[in-house]
Amino acid sequence: MEFKVSLGPQHPALHEALSLRMTLEGEIIRDADLKLGYSHRGIEKLAEERTFTQNIYLTERICGICSHSHTTCFVQGVEQLMELIPARRGLYIRTLIAELERVHSHLLWLGVAGQEAGFESFFMYTWRDREVVMDILDWITGNRVHYAMNTFGGVRRDIDELQKKKILDSLDLLTKRTEYYLSIGANEPTFVNRLAGVGKLSREDAIALCAVGPTLRASGVPMDVRKDDPYAVYNEIPFEVCTADSCDVLGRTVVRVKELIQSYKMIEFLLKNLPDGPFKVKAPRKVKPNEVYSRYEAPRGENVHYIKSNGSDKPERLKVRAPTLANYPATIKMLKNGFIADIPLIFAAIDPCICCAERLVQLDNPGSGESKVLSFSQLRTMANDHYKKVNLMKKEAVWPF
Amino acid sequence: MNSEAIFEKINGEIKDKILEAAIAAPRRISVKVERGQLLSVLAYLKDQLQFTHLATISGVDLGENFEVIYHLSNDTTTILLRILTPRAEPKIPSVCQVIPGAILYERELQDMFGLLVENIPDPRRLLLCDDWPQGQYPLRKDWKFDRPAEIIPGGK
User: Fold this and answer.
1) Can you give the pTM of this predicted structure?
2) Which of A107, A145, A339, B113 is most buried as measured by Cβ atoms within 10 A of its Cβ?
3) Cβ of A223 and B76 within 8 Å?
4) What is the tally of structural domains in chain B?
5) Is A154 helix (H, G, I), strand (E, B) or coil?
6) How many angstroms separate the CA of residue B130 from the nearest CA in chain A?
7) Which domain holds residue B63?
8) CA dist., res. A33 & res. A56, Å (int)
9) B31-83 tens-digit pLDDT
């Protein structure tokens, strides 16, 4: 017998608002449907009414984890529109923050994966190490989450020798710990058995459904914007694109841990080769009518901004495609024919960062089996009527003191 | 194959199907096609030149027309494949039969610009809530949001 189960938008297994409708046959998911839009904020429309400089700080607020990804993607696009060549030292610092952000995002993800897999000490370990990176970011930018480092023509703050030394010292610790996690990810039998074979996504499906980032790379496709379409100073830094062929959650874990190690090497290279000179150049306020398509490899995958300018100081159109939206069709594919117990794990494996919405509640009458669809406003009226009728005990209660 | 070679190939092999092509920036090729030729050009790019990755579909309100841009990438180049559709009859063909991963972007276009995607496998709303009024398309240029005046209960 088939029946339908709704998960979310508010659910302890989900960290952000997202509604999932599943058709189950016993414990096996036969079909899944996503409802998005619970946190849609209309940022694309808002961006058309803000100046380019204001939009740096608006795009920063698209996401709390990859805030630097969105600003870098926006800023490098607008710099191309302005025909502005940013300062080299600024580009190095920008890339340094980008890699530090990748480290903190991947360590956060590892912790979440450990928690979803029931390996809670792993969660404690990785989140403790993440604090090291957060402290570095706090120290060099002044903020733990919204770094506000990017500006047209470079970055807003320089880094000094003492900060360089502190980052290099911390890297030793992080490298050692991450190698230990890699050995856990590859050898610890309970962890491996929980993750292996869960959320299968074949190479062909991953390509056809346009998946991005570690999800795609764990299916054996070596696509990485940093290599394919190098931006900032990635064409000068030596690094490898990490892939896995297992096409499951274990593969996605291994890809991320390997990327951590690559990021440490990149951070070391960037600090040791940091060029002298100014860290920003002056940028014009107005932008000629043109368009640009900017790509960026965020921790979760390819982040895309399409910017069209009209000659004024405001953009004509800003289109943002965050990596999580690109991974949704692939997630549906992964959920199908999987177990209900694997949902949090599969969801966590794409590292979802939800900023999209819709409102609908389907109520099933358990007695008659009848189902009814109510809109949000109807539901609110129903709830208000209900509470007006109910004689609330508290109203008449005598306060004992 | 680098972007110059891809540009030569597009100009040589499917010249009759496209309106114009240009290298807009390093690693970016802009290709303009008629609405009717979209699917065949997309299939050619996917099968012959390995443009399998559709990053997103952007809609732009140009006043008389809507411009719809398909951002396709392979391992060296990105193609901005663009079509125009008149505001009076905003119809575009669905590309899901060529690239299944396009479904969410097409649903987003329907929500935000009111474009009618023909043969779309799943026409439901994606981002707007269910009690959103019909015929209101927020990313069109003539759509403005007027914030209702704030009324403080019991206030003056």
Assistant:
1) 0.87
2) A107
3) no
4) 1
5) strand
6) 6
7) 3-102
8) 34
9) 999 999 999 999 999 999 999 999 999 999 999 999 999 999 999 999 999 99
Residue B23 falls inside a structural domain: yes
Domain at B44, CATH number: 3.30.460.80
CA distance B52 to B43: 9
Q: Give contacts of B80 with chain A, Cβ < 8 Å.
A: 293
Distance CA A165, CA B82 (A): 49
Single-letter residue type at A293: Y
Residue with tokens 């009518």: A289
Chain A partners within 8 Å of B70 (Cβ): none
User: What's the pLDDT tens digit per position in A95-116?
Assistant: 999 999 999 999 999 998 888 8
Least CA distance to A290: which residue of chain B? B24
Give tens-digit pLDDT for A348-358.
Answer: 777 776 542 23
Q: Which residues of A touch B56 (CB under 8 A)?
A: 304, 306, 319, 321, 326
Does A295 touch chain B if contact means CB atoms closer than 8 Å?
A: yes
Do the beta carbons of residue A246 and residue A206 sit within 8 Å?
A: no
Inter-chain CB proximity B128 and A207 less than 8 Å: no
Domains of chain A and any CATH numbers: 43-323 (1.10.645.10)
The three-state secondary structure class of B86 is strand
Q: Do B129 and A308 touch (CB under 8 A)?
A: no
